[in-house]
Structure formats: structure tokens, C-alpha cells
Design a protein that fits this description.
The complex is a heterodimer of chains A (280) and B (281).
Chain A (H helix, E strand, L loop, with lengths): L8 H28 L3 H6 L11 H9 L2 H33 L4 H13 L5 H13 L6 H25 L4 H8 L4 H12 L1 H16 L3 H6 L8 H11 L4 H36 L1
Helix pairs in contact in A: 1-13, 3-13, 4-7, 4-10, 5-7, 7-10, 8-9, 10-13
Chain B lengths: L1 H31 L17 H8 L4 H29 L4 H12 L6 H20 L11 H26 L3 H9 L4 H12 L1 H16 L3 H6 L11 H10 L4 H28 L5
Helix pairs in contact in B: 2-12, 3-4, 3-6, 3-9, 5-6, 6-9, 9-12, 11-12
The chains are: A mainly alpha (280), B mainly alpha (281).
Chain lengths: 280, 281
Amino acid sequence: MKKHRKITPGGVIEVLLTTVTVILFIFPLYLAVLTAFKSKPEMSKSVLSLPQGLYLDNFKEGMKRSDFFHSLRNSLLVTFPSVALIVLCASMSGYAIARHAHKTVALRILDKTYLASLMIPFQILMIPVYRIYKSLNLLNSLPGMTLMLTGTSIAYASFLYVGFVKSIPKEIEESAYMDGCSEMKTFWLITFPLLKPVSATVAALHVMWLWNDFNISIILLQKEAVRTITVKQFYFFGQYTAEYGLAFAAAIVSMIPVVICFAFMQKYIVNGIAAGAVKS
Amino acid sequence: MKKKMTKYLFVLPGFCFFAFAMLIPFVMGINIAFTDWNGVETQFQYVGLKNFMDIFRDARIRKPFWNTLEFALIGTVVSNVVSLYLAMLINGKFSKLNHVSRTVFFIPVCFSSVLTAFLWKFLYREFISELFGVRNLLGDPKWVIPAIVVIGVWNGAGINMLIYLSGLKNIPLELYEAAKADGANVIQQFVKVTLPLLMPAFSVCVTLTLTSWLKEFATTLSATGGGPGGASKTVSIYVYENLYKYYKAGYGQAVSLLFSICLIVIGLCVSSFFRKREVEL
């Protein structure tokens, strides 16, 4: 059937428009990759010219000078513990709110507080957070950063869980109570495994967002030794505006972890955003 | 009794994190807004409403204020037009092509605003200026804001595209067939069927983009640092500068408190404006 599809003017326009837009979107990335493989003299000739060979020195130098592995370690140490904490805490909160909020005032208030907190811009927290962290000696500390990343993500993550828990029938849990299981045990043994799809979405979205976080890390991570990739780049790019090849090589290396993560979790990210849109 | 407490045990760990990172700083922030704290020393004094009065006398805040409005206006319009356009492209008849282009349009979302800003700085400086024979748009006070909007849209359009896409997929095909039977052309179908039925998606996307452009911080700070000559400095950057550059944390907090109230009010107004225009199927 499909092979004999008629070529209509509408179809041609559609394919043409899509192709042009795709090229426009991908072009900046193409240029970045191109530049990363060029030596300095090649660079000065023309922006668009293809590199003569695979010039890998940029990658070596770029990774060395941006201290890539050190900041990669910092990013990993901050992102993954936060995401784990977010999934654990938010799934529990989401469950309790979904199951008990209709008859518990305190949980209803909590639910509304979480929703309201989503509207607050980070700028209002910037100065007090700096003050709290300064007095607690938590500035320039990776665990301190983890606390902040987790705390600012709990509200949205719980919100995503609430909707999903409501769609799971209660009967399964109730039969577990009959067998003498406590509510806590039932949650971890029965309900939590059923929440896998939404946990995947929450994890995928937060890996992406926390990895790229700039607002919080620029305030809390001022010292060289604790900078994550994103903060590191902010300062690194400032210094190497003339040596594009070097800077882009460093940039491309830093893209790799996110792109790998995206390749594996695209399905969950896409589903999650679509589902969130339906609810809010 | 034990069973009664369990439900609180469930929310407790999450709430502790939330309280530490958001609730306590929020309450403390209200307090700081009434002081002359400079951000460095431990000592400070209460100055009453002085910080709030100063906002209206402050000549330095005027430029960031107008810039923020310009960002919000241009950014919201461009973001939504582009996202809807992308969503319509990937909602087409060719599933293979749609799938590939959906991935391509979404990839920039994975990159941090710092990385994106750097990439585009290079494009503006070395490529676009050469191609069109103009000077670097990021260095031109007149064009810097639209130029940054382009960067932000490339970086973020993917998210709104997915929201619009799920809206488009929810429109029953019969409605288009009925419209076609009544002799409506493509543009009439778009205006009379697509747009009204997309209202829920509009209310989410417009609220999201408007509030996020009003908060514009990271992309601009990395792309221009607020320059040239403050031409792209936003209120958020100004708050940040009050902490790190001018050492007027108390005043900065007052600005951000007033600013947040405006943001929440605008957010609520915009979403209720669109909510009222949503059509029931």
C-alpha cells in the first residue's frame, strides 16, 4: 500500500519544510564538530571548510586544560545521588498524597504548598540560600549541593508521582494488608515496582536538568575544586574565546554523557513531558 | 495509632529536603529584604521599608526592567510560534521522517544554557556576521535581545514542541474531515479547528515560556553577561549583581521579592486567561 502513495503537492511541501528545518536545527552542532577537528591555522582560513584530517590534539589539550575528568567526577557525584534521593523521597510523598490527601488536611496543605512552590523563581532563594550555606559552612561542598538540588526538585517530582499513583488500583495494596503487611512494607514491595514507568521519567528528566544546572551551582560552587562541568564551562569558555577548536573539543566531550543518557531515556523523557502537559 | 502516623512518615523525608532548600530560604528571604545586609559580614540592621522605596528611586534598575519586558514579549511570541510550527511538522504523514526530526528538534534541550550560549556566540561572531555581512548581533545594543531569544528558542523549543504535539494528537481527525466537507481550506482549518482545540496546550506553553523568559538568567549571563553596556541585562541578572558585585544583598532581596510577586500574579493571570478560552470536546 505505502509504496504506491501518491505524490501530492502538500506532501512535497511537508517533506521540504521538515528537511530545511532539520538542517537549520542541526547546523550549529555540525559546525561545532567541524571546528573541534581543526588546527588553529586551518581555523583561520574559513569557518565552513572541512578539516584536512582528524586533528585530535584539540581533544587532548581541551580535556587537559578544562580538567575534564575532575569536573566530570563532580558532576556525577552531585547528579546521581540527588536523582536517587528524588526518586525515593518523591515516590513516597506522591504515594501518601495520592492515597491519603482526601481525608488528611495536613497532606492537602502539603500538596498545595508543593504546587505553589513551582511558581517561585529561583532568584528569590539565591541570596538567602547563599546566607544559609555560608553560616553552615556548606558553600563549595558537593553534599551541600546535593541537598539543594534534591530539595528544589522534590515538589515537581512528587507532583508527577501523585497523578500516576492515582491511576493504580488500590485493591492490590489492600490484599497485601490482609496478609498482615505494614503499609511501608506494602509500598516498597508492591507499589514501588508498579511505579517504574513514572520513576524512569522522573529520573530521566532530573538527570538532564541537574546535570545542566547553572543557577544553583553558580551560587554554591565557587571554588575550582568543586566545579561541575556546567560551571567549569562557564569559566573555561570565558578564557578560551580565541581558541575555538580547543573549546569546542572540550564542549563536545562534555556533551557525550548527556547525549548517551538521552539516547537511552528518550522514550521516558518524551512520555513524561507529554503526560505532564495533560495534567497541568 | 501506628497506622495513622505512617502516612506522615511517607512524606517526611521529602518534606525535610523541601523545607531546607525552599521553605526556610523563602521565609528567611522575606526577612533579609528588610535589612541592609551586604552579603559578606554577619552583622546587619533592619531598615524597614527603605529597600522597597529605593527600588522606585533606583535609576540602575530601569534598563533591566524594560529589557526583561522586551525579553518576555519577543521570547514568548517566538518560542510559541516556533514550537507549534515544529510540532505541526512532526505531526505529519511521514512517520520515519517525523521520528528523526522529533529527535533532532529535541537534542538541543539536552545541552546546558552555558554550552548553548557559547556555541551561538561562535556562530554570531564567526558565521552569521560573515554570511550576512553584518556585525556581531550580540555586540549590537539594538539586536542583542532578539539574538539571545534565538539562542533560547533553539535550546528550549523541544519541550514545548512535545506539549503542542500531544495537544495536536488529541484533536479528533473527524473534525478536520467535517471541516473539509464544508469546504474549509488549510488555513481555515488551522484557524477554526486547530487553534481553538489547542487552548489547553497554549495555556501551559504560554504560561511556561512567559514566566521563564521573565526569569531569563543563565543564557544571557553566559552569552553577553548583560552587555553590551547593559543592553541585555535582566532583572534576574541585576539581583545576582547586587549580591556579588554591588554588595547590596538586602536591597537585591527586596527587588527579587517584589519581582517574584509580579511573576506569580502574571503567571496566574495568563493561565486563567487561557483556561477561560478552552473548548470542551
